[in-house]
Amino acid sequence: ALAGDQTDPVSDQRLRQLRVGLAQVDTRVGDLGGNAELVTTWTAKAAGDGVHLVVFPEMTLTGYPPEDLVLRESFAAASEQALVDLAVALAEQGHGDVAVVVGYLAHTGGPGPAPAESMPGEDDRPTDANPRRGAPRNAAALLHGGQVVARYYKRHLPNYGVFDEARYFVPGTELPVVRLHGVDVALTICEDLWVEGGPCGVAGQAGVDVVVSPNASPYERAKDDLRLPLVRRRAAEARASVVYCNQVGGQDELVFDGDSLAVSPSGDLLARAPQFVEHLLTVDLEIDPAAVPERRDGRIGPMTVTRHVLSEEPVPAFEGRPGTVAEPLTDLEEVWRALVLGLRDFIDKNRMPSVVLGMSGGIDSAVVAALAVDALGADRVHGVALPSKYSSGHSMDDAADEAQRLGIHYSVVPIAPMVDAYHGAVELTGVAAENLQARVRGTLLMGLSNQHGHLLLTTGNKSEVAVGYSTLYGDSAGGFGPIKDVPKTLVWDLARWRNEQARKRREVEPIPQHCIDKPPSAELAPGQVDTDSLPSYDELDAIIADYVDGDLGMAQLLERGHDADTVARVLRLVDGAEFKRRQSAPGTKISLKAFGRDRRLPITNRWRESLPSVREGAATHE
After folding, report:
1. Cβ-count burial of 428 within 10 angstroms (0-12 exposed, 13-18 middle, 19+ buried)?
2. If 0-12 CB within 10 Å is exposed, 13-18 middle and 19+ buried, where does residue 131 land?
3. Could you give the CA distance from residue 158 to residue 155 in angstroms, rounded to a whole number?
4. Are the beta carbons of 71 and 168 closer than 8 angstroms?
5. What are phi and psi of 103, to 5 degrees?
């Protein structure tokens, strides 16, 4: 590493204080005006609480992820203008003395998007046919006194899982450090914190007091357990306090849980925000300038450190307050709240008035209905029972019972006459006849959706989506799948947990116990149960977790103790159902690897995991 130039140390060695606010807010992609209003509203709250520096999430102004909106110069230009306008608006509203760190989309001078840079021989010079100028950047800016004081461009661009940032952005090479009230604050963004020896390492060599990290870190199960150890490692590397502010809210298939936090240079947890709610977390930092004996700028390692002085004078001494640390959620409560928030934001951000779903009396539709009520309220949920001649009386009783428990709108539309009419026109037998019932239901539910403006919710779980145990244009029809990433065994666990919470609050249990206890069945044929054509869900979900989430091959699956014949059968079903999954509704991601933007395999694909001694199984419903 090339050593930077030594700068003048802080001459006044008195202890310094700084009250920092972490505003974990729920943004909307593309809503520059609305997101800017969020910043002014929450900055006003922070100012009222005596905050000197308030940090907002990654790409706050544009919302995250903006995906291919990044490629539109008009959008990038609007983002740049919104940032400048926001700085002016904050000053005009009397908050110019509060330093505000806000994420946005920058469009700087340069050679163009990262993919073009990675293609040798491509000429990216602007022409009349291709007038694009400049490079998109995932950026954060510090605003103060009506001005954009410093801009930081994200150094490390994630390109795995749900992230495609290398498709859009050019990495930054500068690390700005802003002196605020005599405290040196370095700017980073999200993925920069996950890289050892990255910007936090550069900050540690440069000498800073605080590292701020705006984030848009999507939720997945147990991810909150990774954050605190990660932030502690970066605080040790930076030899500074780290302030980690994360986004909250749903965006299509992603949901963000907040869980913002702050740690001291020694790794002590100073404050932590609750999950799945908008929240302003404040933390009082006490800074000892003597703890940073050397402060440098210039080239340090792969980055250039720049320094900007806003104010040298420390803030007047004030009585510090201990930071609040939110109680951690249990695993099942965390998942339930993620699913509720993901569904609520999908409906509300897309301005949909209500939802409709088919209610079969089974566990999946029961859990989806309960989620919908928790997300939207009973009056916005419409349940429809669509019994065929194979529907059992207890299933219809269970559906009606749950509708009454939840207080939702409920109606019954028998489909037998419509199915008989189809059979009068064309001869269908076996699986084709069974699937006809599902397709009649899907057509009716879509008709009700069109007629009344409801969004149709699909009720398929991850286990069914994985093996293709659904009917195209039947039970897979709809606009959103709330439990698409929830394995069947977890669906049962969530149902029991939700009922337990109701009992604790002395409320009516939303899910009838019979829905939980009875064997699952599509009821498309006499006496049909799911295990007629699938392994037990305990066994199936374990294989899916290893194969889909863990990307294990056949040999590794067998080493883990799975039955060879069952593995071969399940893998063939999973691989053969890719064309169905491409046509499935989006749904909230909660697992390490969700179907959709997270797991993408070719439909036309001759690769099959196999061993010579292993037989292949048969496919299920189409």
Report:
1. middle
2. exposed
3. 10
4. yes
5. -85, 150
- Respond yes or no: is residue 200 known to be catalytic: no
Residue 580 Cα to chain centre, angstroms: 23
Token representation of residue 544: 């899916």
pLDDT for 475-525, tens place per residue? 889 999 999 999 999 999 999 999 999 999 999 999 999 889 887 766 556
Query: Is there a contact between 503 and 510 (Cβ–Cβ < 8 Å)?
Result: no
pLDDT tens digit sequence for 574-618: 988 888 988 889 999 999 989 888 888 888 887 776 654 443 433
Pull the structure tokens for residue 99.
Answer: 């330093």
Instruction: Express each pLDDT in 148-201 by its tens digit.
Output: 999 999 998 888 878 888 888 899 999 999 999 999 999 999 999 999 999 999
- For residues 272 and 328, give the distance between their C-alpha atoms in angstroms, rounded to a whole number: 10
Task: Label residue 104 left, alpha or beta by phi (over 0 means left) and psi (-120 to 50 means alpha).
Answer: beta
- DSSP class of residue 193 equals G
Phi, psi of 222 (to 5 degrees): 70, 10
Q: What per-residue confidence (pLDDT) applies to 431?
A: 86
Give yes or no for a cis peptide into 65 (omega within 30° of 0).
Answer: yes
pTM for this model (two decimals): 0.90
Residue 619 has pLDDT above 50, yes or no: no
Encoded tokens for 291? 């703890």
From the list 165, 190, 191, 609, the catalytic residue is 190
Q: Is the pLDDT of residue 298 over 60?
A: yes
Q: Residue type for 311, please?
A: S
Q: Which residue has the tokens 């989006």?
A: 586
CA dihedral 301, 304, 310, 311 (to 10 degrees): 30
223 flagged as catalytic: no
In the block, tokens 């929450």 appear at: 42
Q: Report the C-alpha gap between 622 and 620 in whole angstroms.
A: 7
Neighbours of 110 (CB within 10 A): 14
- Pairing between strand 210-215 and 254-257? unpaired
As a three-state string, the secondary structure of 306-351 is EEEECCCCCCCCCCCCCCCECCCCCHHHHHHHHHHHHHHHHHHHCC
Rounded to an integer, what distance in angstroms lies between the CA atom of residue 154 and that of residue 534?
47
AA letter at 246: N
In one-letter notation, the amino acid at residue 386 is L
Please give the Cα distance from 352 to 358 (Å, whole number): 18
154 is known as an active-site residue: yes
Taking the C-alpha atoms of residue 431 and residue 468, their distance in angstroms, rounded to an integer, is 14
Judged by phi (left if over 0) then psi (alpha if -120 to 50, else beta), residue 50 lies in left
Query: What are the φ and ψ backbone dihedral angles of 552, each rounded to 5 degrees?
Result: -80, 145
Question: How far apart are the C-alpha atoms of 52 and 215, rounded to whole Å?
Answer: 20
Number of Cβ atoms within 10 Å of the Cβ of 364: 25
pLDDT greater at residue 290 or residue 118: 290
Select which of 58, 80, 334, 609 is catalytic.
Answer: 58
The residue written with tokens 């069952």 in the block is 566
